[in-house]
Amino acid sequence: MRGLEGVIKNFELLDSLIKENVKEVVMQTAPDMEHHAKTHYAWTHRTGHARDNLRGKFKIEGRKAHAQLWQDLFGATGDEYGYYLETAKMFKGKYAILRQTQIAFAPQFYEDLKEAIIEAIKNSHKN
Description:
alpha+beta
């Protein structure tokens, strides 16, 4: 391939490799965040519901990739209250773990993303 057509094909390959590598990073980070949150919470363990309902999730929407941590905790009425426990001023952070986990993982997450992109660039030159 020569000219503009070759350049476009190279960019398409690079784009594909970056998406693939970024997906791997978010797929690995989400369960790591879940494990961290489940082993580093500060509250007194009683029923285990708050801990057991911490969920590391990832999602990819177009060109956006997210590694997330959720508190999927619902009361007997079906109302979600994990976020409330996390943020309610009356608890003064006693039940907070989501934000602390995000902060703890951010530097390594961004470093892993950087390395994933560098690796994609290197691999795109091999083809």
